[in-house]
C-alpha cells in the first residue's frame, strides 16, 4: 500500500486510501495537482533525501574507510612513503681559528697544551707559529673562553658544518651493503660448482671494500662531531727602535695632513 499525498494550496495533506474513500463516499485514490514550481521542489527534496541516506549508510562508510587504509598500506609496502630514520639530533662539526699576540711563542703553546689536556683534548700538530688541537665538543666553548686567560686574543673565527644528512645517508648505504653481503654469503653456501663460488666471492670482495670505506667515513664524521678543531696562531708584535719612532711620528703626521676619516 502506497502512502499517497495531495497538495491543496501548497500544503501537503494525507490522501484517503481506497477503503476510506468508499466509506466516505469519495473517489478512491488521489489526484495530485501540482504546479510547476511545487513539482520541481518535490523532486529536489526527494533526490537530496535519497543521496543522504545512501552516503550515511554504515556499509558505504566501512567500504570507503577500508579502501583508504589499504591504499596507505600499499604505499608503504611499495615505497610510496619512504621510511626514513627520524632525525632527533643534529650532527655539527666546529672549527675555530684563533689569533693571539705573544712575544714568547713556545711559552704560549705550552699553556695552550696544558689547557688542552685539562679539557681532555689532544694535539694534532704544531709548527713555528701555529698549533692545531682537538677538544671535546662539550668543552669547546669553555676552552675558547679560557684562551683569553693565557694571552691576548687578537681575532676569533668559528665555523660550523652540519653533517647530519651525510651521516644518515652513509648509515643507510652501509646497512644495505651489509644485508647484501649476508645474502651473498648464503648464496656461497649453496654454490653448486667452482664457477658459481668464484663469482660470488668476487662480489663479496667488492662489498667488503665498500663496507670498509663506508665504515671509515662514518667513524670520521662521528669523531669530528665529537671533537672540535681549534687552530691557534701567534703574531709577535713589532717594536720599532729609536729612529723607527721618528719615522713613525712623521708617518702619523703626514697621514693626519692628507687623510681624514
Our count of domains comes out at: 2
Q: If helices are DSSP runs of H or I spanning 4 or more residues, what is the number of helices?
A: 8
How much helicity do the residues have? 55-70%
Order of helices and strands: EEHHHEHEEHEHHEH
How many β strands by DSSP? 7
> Approximately what portion of the residues adopt beta-strand conformation?
15-25%
Strand order of the largest sheet: 4-5-7-3-6
Report the structural category: alpha+beta
Shape: elongated
What number is the mean pLDDT?
75
Radius of gyration: 44 Å
Low-confidence segments, given as residue ranges, are 1-37, 57-84
**What separation lies between the terminal Cα atoms?**
107 Å
Major sheet: size, sense and barrel closure? 5 strands, mixed
Task: Give a brief outline of the structure.
The chain is of the alpha+beta class. 56% of the residues lie in helices and 19% in strands. It has two domains: 5-78, no CATH class; 84-239.
